[in-house]
Design brief:
Number of helices: 7
Radius of gyration: 19 Å
CATH topology of the domain at 42-116: Arc Repressor Mutant, subunit A
InterPro entries: HTH_MarR-typ (IPR000835), MarR/SlyA-like (IPR039422), WH-like_DNA-bd_sf (IPR036388), WH_DNA-bd_sf (IPR036390)
Helix content: 55-70%
Oligomer: single chain
Distance between the termini: 26 Å
Number of strands: 3
CATH architecture of the domain at 42-116: Orthogonal Bundle
CATH class of the domain at 42-116: Mainly Alpha
Largest sheet: 3 strands, antiparallel
GO molecular function: DNA-binding transcription factor activity
Order of helices and strands: HHHEHHEEHH
Protein name: MarR family transcriptional regulator
Pfam family, one: MarR
Structural class: mainly alpha
Length: about 140
Amino acid sequence: MGNIVEDVQSRFENNKVKALINILYTASWISNKQNMFFKQFGISPQQYNILRILKGAKKPLKAQEVKDRMIERSPNSTRLMDKLVAKNLIKRSPCENDRRVVYIHITTDGLNLLKSISSDYNLDILKNLSEGEAEELSDLLDKLR
């Protein structure tokens, strides 16, 4: 891994196509690495994202707010939350004033799980980049979007 031309054994019609394929290929590579990492904790990267959102909020959030803050906005966020409820990592509470609103809380078990996961797990993915290169990459990705 390290050269998109060699990794996918293909040539590209121009550098913009090459860059796009490289972004997609790298996103898949990162996703696979994260799936493998979180497997040992019995959660997915998306479930980890939900737990981090709730921890960072420091208060219960509406389910829709959690969905809106997710990095990977998927239509199955309710199912992801169902699995976290089943594992006692989050809990749901209905809103007293509006039956349509559900608040999501992180539990003590959820907080303890987050404490057991190294906060620098992503650094391995970025180990080949200097701080300056990481900043440049982030700026380029922001420009792309």
